[in-house]
Amino acid sequence: MSHFAQYQDGVYADATNGDLPRLPYHHEALRDLAEKAMEPGPFGYVEGSAGRERTADANVAAFARYALRPRSLRPGAENAGDLGVTLFGERYPTPLLTAPVGVLEQVHGEAELAVARGANALGVPMVLSTAASTPMEEVAEAADTWWYQLYWPGDDALAESFVRRATAAGAKAIVVTADTKRLGWRPRDLALGHLPFLRSQGMANYFSDPEFRSRLKADPEPGGVFTEAVFHFLGAFASRSLSTDNIARIRDWTDLPVLVKGVVRGDEAIELVEAGVDGLVVSNHGGRQVDNAVAALDALPEVVEAVGDRAAVLFDSGVRSGADVAVAMALGARAVLLGRPWVYGLAVDGAAGVEHVLRAVLAELQITAELMGRDAADLDRDDVTRR
């Protein structure tokens, strides 16, 4: 069994020698440090959400509506607290993954390579964004375990190229994001005119792709503005006609597990399972796409009930702590993707900042599971109630 919980013992021991933690443990305090470390445009891009940001606020607030129900005297509870989970036949030491976040070069110079090092230290898989700042093959060399997130482009041949590259490079799964046929209405970005793609940021997987490059008259210019490559990217970024039919085509391109991310309805979950997907990620993109949408956590029980045991259900959106992870797992999530918290750790302290955030979340999760008398994978609806 992993002993992430022992991390807090080390923190207290170090403190007796006057060595206090360099970074805070509350998300809000870390976010404030990140705001000081980042330029206004990049910070607004990460922190901001759609419209009046009601969905993002609802994601966080939803966790307060669900209360854990500890049972300390549960038989066998003295051995509880293991965080290991099995996903698609693979055993993982924890149920945590880093959510796909694009354009990390605007957060830290080492971008995805720093995320990989921070995640590797704890055995946490990273989910690599299509809009990464580092080509997937380079990330594959740095990351111990990684999944590939696909923004399905308008060009199906490019989608196929991305999936085949990820498979060849050693990805463990393909995660298709379905809720981004176009960018949501994001007032913070609009107010600053900040769209990093127009500065050729977040395009490493495109500029390194032979299918994408074959469409260009000249080689892309890294760092260039309004190049031919940028215009081609803007036209190809997302497919407006993405459907279950498209997703079923991935089976011709890879034998990896296929998940669809951005599901908040039971009826759509059923359609996707019938189309043959292996997993779903209940998510509203952290509130970045549709304002006033349902909180992802409130949608989780509906999707879990609709799917049953026919596909693995994962979760993201609004997670800020290990206790939040425990709530999501008790409501049926098999694993949880964490987003903004580790991005702020990256901004403040690079790979060490990512590791700090992940380690703190896992320590709290393991302590919570032990006090619940459960292994993380065994948390269920009996362990949570709606307030």
Automatic annotation (TrEMBL):
Domain FMN hydroxy acid dehydrogenase: 19-387
Any Pfam family hit: FMN_dh
Protein name from the UniProt record: Alpha-hydroxy-acid oxidizing protein
The entry's keywords: Oxidoreductase
Family, similarity comment: Belongs to the FMN-dependent alpha-hydroxy acid dehydrogenase family.
Keyword Mitochondrion among record annotations: no
Keyword Oxidoreductase part of the UniProt annotation: yes
Biological source species: Streptomonospora nanhaiensis
Cofactor annotation: FMN
InterPro entries cross-referenced by the UniProt entry: Aldolase_TIM (IPR013785), Alpha-hydoxy_acid_DH_FMN (IPR012133), FMN-dep_DH (IPR000262), FMN_HAD (IPR037396), FMN_hydac_DH_AS (IPR008259)
